[in-house]
Amino acid sequence: MRDAELLGLLRENPEKGLKALTKQYGGLVYAVVRRNLSEASNTDIEACAADVFAEFYLELDKYDPSKGSVKAWLCTMARHNALDAARKTKETLPLDEEVLSEESSVESEHENAELRRAVLSEVKNLPEPDREILLRKFYLGESSKEIAARLKMSVSNVDTRTSRAVEKLRKRLEEWR
């Protein structure tokens, strides 16, 4: 079924439209979610995939066919929802030490753990959207383009904010040492 037909069916008869949408793209959405939630249970993966379709329907008015196909929109939503779910389930976030400095002066595991806690604490103290940008970029591995789309900003604005926020972190962490 073509995108226009699916969208028309979703608007005319949401129940039939969601069934058709799920039948056509269910496997793809499930695969994208599973790839990004590889450590989750099948139940969690299925729930996340179902949430993607529900969110698509609820945000149907925001969908713009000129910006991409229904397939692309669903894949993007699936990836973002899965990454959000993964982020929520993680107790600790790994630190990308390249963000701090090119030469690490951390000598022991204890100091390394303290540094990680300090970095995360400083990231949490950053104002929005800087905090979200850094978490998405360095902890979730999202690209500047993905972050820009998610936060409705330009890519150059995301890159500038990233650079400035990292510099703030460097200065704060130099004081910490």
Describe this structure in words.
Helix 1 packs across helix 2 (14-36), helix 2 (14-36) crosses helix 3 and helix 3 crosses helix 4. The protein has helices at residues 3-12, 14-36, 42-58, 70-89, 109-125, 130-139, 144-151, 155-176. It is 72% helix and 0% strand. It has 177 residues and is mainly alpha-helical. Residues 91-107 have low confidence and may be disordered.
Query: What proportion of the residues form beta strands (DSSP E)?
Result: under 5%
Radius of gyration: 20 Å
Number of helices: 8
Secondary-structure class: mainly alpha
User: How would you name the oligomeric state of the polypeptide chains in this document?
Assistant: single chain
User: Termini, distance in Å?
Assistant: 60 Å
Number of strands: 0
- What profile does the largest beta sheet have? none
Average pLDDT taken over every residue? 81
State the helical fraction: over 70%
Label the overall shape: elongated
> What is the N-to-C order of secondary-structure elements (H for helix, E for strand)?
HHHHHHHH
- Report the uncertain regions: 91-107
Question: Concise description?
Answer:
The chain has 177 residues and is an all-alpha fold.
Produce the secondary structure layout.
Blueprint: H1 3-12, H2 14-36, H3 42-58, H4 70-89, H5 109-125, H6 130-139, H7 144-151, H8 155-176
Helix pairs in contact: 1-2, 2-3, 2-4, 3-4, 5-8, 6-8, 7-8
